[in-house]
Amino acid sequence: RDTSVFAFVRAKNNQKVLVICNLTPKALDVKFNAKLLAGNYVEVFSQKKKSFTSNEKITLKPWDYLVYEVE
Question: Which residues lie below 8 Å from residue 5, measured CB to CB, with a gap of 6+?
Fold first, then answer.
């Protein structure tokens, strides 16, 4: 179990939010292997669009966090 990254999904009805937090002072590559995450998202704070596949890899900056909402 990796305690460097805290990530969770909240879903209700047709709404889904994905939160990913880097809990370290180092940049991290994070790989997700979950069909649950596949879909089109918008990052809540930057409004950047992102498509997640079931085998997605992202890089988080030190102490970075991302909050995605399903489009």
Answer: 20, 21, 22, 23, 28, 30, 60
pLDDT digits (tens, 9 = 90+) for 15-70: 999 999 999 999 999 988 878 788 899 999 999 999 988 888 999 999 999 999 99
pTM, entire model: 0.86
Burial of 22: CB neighbours in 10 Å, binned 0-12, 13-18, 19+: buried
| 31-36, Cβ contacts within 8 angstroms, sequence gap of 24 or more | 31/55, 31/56, 31/57, 32/7, 32/56, 32/57, 32/58, 36/9
Residues 9 and 7: their CA atoms lie apart, in Å, by 7
For position 1, what pLDDT does the model report? Answer: 64
